[in-house]
Amino acid sequence: MSTRREFIGNTGKAMIAGGLVTLAENGDPVMIENKFIHHVYFWLKNAGSKEDRAKLIEGLQKLSKVKTIKTFHIGQPADTNRDVIDRSYAISWFTMFDNAADQASYQVDPIHLKFVEDYSHLWSKVTVYDSVDAK
Q: Cα dist. 47→44, 115, 131 in Å?
Protein backbone atom coordinates (compact mmCIF):
# COMPACT_ATOMS: atom_id res chain seq x y z
CA MET A 1 0.00 0.00 0.00
CA SER A 2 1.39 3.40 -0.96
CA THR A 3 1.32 6.57 1.04
CA ARG A 4 -0.90 9.46 -0.05
CA ARG A 5 2.17 11.41 -1.21
CA GLU A 6 3.42 8.46 -3.30
CA PHE A 7 -0.05 7.94 -4.77
CA ILE A 8 -0.34 11.61 -5.78
CA GLY A 9 3.18 11.59 -7.20
CA ASN A 10 2.56 8.43 -9.21
CA THR A 11 -0.80 9.69 -10.45
CA GLY A 12 0.85 12.92 -11.60
CA LYS A 13 3.54 10.97 -13.44
CA ALA A 14 0.90 8.84 -15.13
CA MET A 15 -0.98 11.94 -16.26
CA ILE A 16 2.20 13.44 -17.66
CA ALA A 17 3.06 10.20 -19.44
CA GLY A 18 -0.45 10.19 -20.89
CA GLY A 19 -0.01 13.71 -22.17
CA LEU A 20 -2.88 15.07 -20.10
CA VAL A 21 -1.00 17.45 -17.86
CA THR A 22 2.51 18.84 -17.74
CA LEU A 23 3.86 19.65 -14.28
CA ALA A 24 7.21 20.96 -13.15
CA GLU A 25 8.97 19.09 -10.39
CA ASN A 26 8.91 22.17 -8.16
CA GLY A 27 5.19 22.76 -8.71
CA ASP A 28 5.65 25.86 -10.88
CA PRO A 29 3.29 26.16 -13.84
CA VAL A 30 4.64 24.96 -17.17
CA MET A 31 3.97 26.71 -20.45
CA ILE A 32 2.14 24.64 -23.05
CA GLU A 33 4.42 24.60 -26.07
CA ASN A 34 4.22 23.36 -29.64
CA LYS A 35 0.45 23.04 -29.62
CA PHE A 36 -2.30 24.58 -31.70
CA ILE A 37 -5.01 26.14 -29.52
CA HIS A 38 -8.55 26.48 -30.90
CA HIS A 39 -10.98 28.38 -28.66
CA VAL A 40 -14.57 28.89 -29.80
CA TYR A 41 -17.22 31.07 -28.13
CA PHE A 42 -20.92 30.47 -28.82
CA TRP A 43 -23.85 32.85 -28.36
CA LEU A 44 -27.20 31.06 -28.34
CA LYS A 45 -30.17 32.32 -30.37
CA ASN A 46 -32.36 31.58 -27.35
CA ALA A 47 -29.99 32.92 -24.72
CA GLY A 48 -32.14 31.88 -21.75
CA SER A 49 -32.96 28.39 -23.01
CA LYS A 50 -31.58 25.69 -20.74
CA GLU A 51 -32.62 23.11 -23.32
CA ASP A 52 -30.62 24.77 -26.13
CA ARG A 53 -27.63 25.15 -23.83
CA ALA A 54 -27.81 21.45 -22.90
CA LYS A 55 -28.13 20.46 -26.58
CA LEU A 56 -25.04 22.48 -27.51
CA ILE A 57 -23.06 20.88 -24.67
CA GLU A 58 -24.26 17.45 -25.84
CA GLY A 59 -23.04 18.29 -29.35
CA LEU A 60 -19.65 19.44 -28.10
CA GLN A 61 -19.23 16.22 -26.13
CA LYS A 62 -19.86 14.30 -29.36
CA LEU A 63 -17.42 16.61 -31.17
CA SER A 64 -14.70 15.73 -28.66
CA LYS A 65 -14.42 12.30 -30.32
CA VAL A 66 -12.45 13.78 -33.24
CA LYS A 67 -9.17 11.84 -33.14
CA THR A 68 -6.81 14.81 -33.56
CA ILE A 69 -8.13 16.60 -30.45
CA LYS A 70 -5.58 16.18 -27.66
CA THR A 71 -7.63 17.80 -24.92
CA PHE A 72 -10.82 19.82 -24.67
CA HIS A 73 -12.84 21.89 -22.25
CA ILE A 74 -16.48 22.93 -22.40
CA GLY A 75 -16.99 26.07 -20.34
CA GLN A 76 -19.38 28.83 -19.42
CA PRO A 77 -18.66 32.37 -18.28
CA ALA A 78 -17.03 32.46 -14.87
CA ASP A 79 -18.56 34.65 -12.19
CA THR A 80 -15.88 37.31 -12.56
CA ASN A 81 -16.61 40.94 -13.19
CA ARG A 82 -14.00 43.36 -14.44
CA ASP A 83 -14.12 45.83 -17.30
CA VAL A 84 -11.95 43.62 -19.51
CA ILE A 85 -14.08 40.47 -19.17
CA ASP A 86 -16.67 39.54 -21.79
CA ARG A 87 -19.31 37.33 -20.21
CA SER A 88 -21.84 37.71 -23.02
CA TYR A 89 -21.25 34.27 -24.57
CA ALA A 90 -23.14 31.16 -23.48
CA ILE A 91 -20.62 28.34 -23.97
CA SER A 92 -16.93 28.12 -24.82
CA TRP A 93 -15.14 25.22 -26.49
CA PHE A 94 -11.38 24.95 -25.92
CA THR A 95 -9.38 22.36 -27.84
CA MET A 96 -5.72 21.61 -28.19
CA PHE A 97 -4.08 19.98 -31.21
CA ASP A 98 -0.52 18.87 -31.81
CA ASN A 99 -0.20 21.14 -34.84
CA ALA A 100 -2.00 23.21 -37.46
CA ALA A 101 -2.38 20.21 -39.77
CA ASP A 102 -4.29 18.29 -37.09
CA GLN A 103 -6.54 21.29 -36.53
CA ALA A 104 -7.11 21.60 -40.29
CA SER A 105 -8.12 17.93 -40.47
CA TYR A 106 -10.53 18.52 -37.57
CA GLN A 107 -12.27 21.20 -39.66
CA VAL A 108 -13.19 18.65 -42.35
CA ASP A 109 -13.62 15.65 -40.06
CA PRO A 110 -17.08 14.07 -40.53
CA ILE A 111 -17.75 14.42 -36.79
CA HIS A 112 -17.11 18.18 -36.98
CA LEU A 113 -19.21 18.56 -40.14
CA LYS A 114 -22.06 16.63 -38.48
CA PHE A 115 -21.79 18.85 -35.40
CA VAL A 116 -22.19 21.99 -37.52
CA GLU A 117 -25.09 20.43 -39.43
CA ASP A 118 -26.93 19.26 -36.31
CA TYR A 119 -26.28 22.13 -33.90
CA SER A 120 -25.65 25.35 -35.84
CA HIS A 121 -29.33 26.26 -35.61
CA LEU A 122 -28.76 26.83 -31.88
CA TRP A 123 -26.29 29.70 -32.12
CA SER A 124 -26.60 33.28 -33.32
CA LYS A 125 -22.89 34.03 -33.25
CA VAL A 126 -19.59 32.17 -33.05
CA THR A 127 -16.19 33.71 -32.45
CA VAL A 128 -13.01 31.68 -32.83
CA TYR A 129 -9.55 32.43 -31.45
CA ASP A 130 -6.77 30.22 -32.81
CA SER A 131 -3.27 30.58 -31.44
CA VAL A 132 0.19 29.09 -31.75
CA ASP A 133 3.38 29.63 -29.77
CA ALA A 134 4.65 33.21 -29.60
CA LYS A 135 8.22 33.33 -30.78
A: 5, 19, 28
Do residues 55 and 117 share a domain? yes
Judge if 23 and 38 occupy the same domain.
no
Helix (H) or strand (E) holding 43: strand 36-44
Q: What string of DSSP letters covers 45-71?
A: SSTT-HHHHHHHHHHHHHHTT-TT--E
How many Cβ atoms are within 10 Å of 52's Cβ, its own excluded?
19
Q: What CATH number did the domain enclosing 120 receive? A: 3.30.70.100
**Which residue range is the domain that position 8 belongs to?**
1-30
If DSSP codes are grouped into helix, strand and coil, which group holds residue 17? helix
The predicted-structure confidence for 35-54, as pLDDT tens digits, reads as follows 999 999 999 999 999 999 99
Q: What's the pTM value of the predicted model, to 2 decimals?
A: 0.79
Q: 108: helix, coil or strand?
A: helix
Triad 37, 107, 57: Cα angle to 5°: 75
Please choose, from the candidates 131, 20, 124, the residue with its C-alpha nearest in 3D space to the C-alpha of residue 73: 20
Identify the pLDDT of residue 71: 96
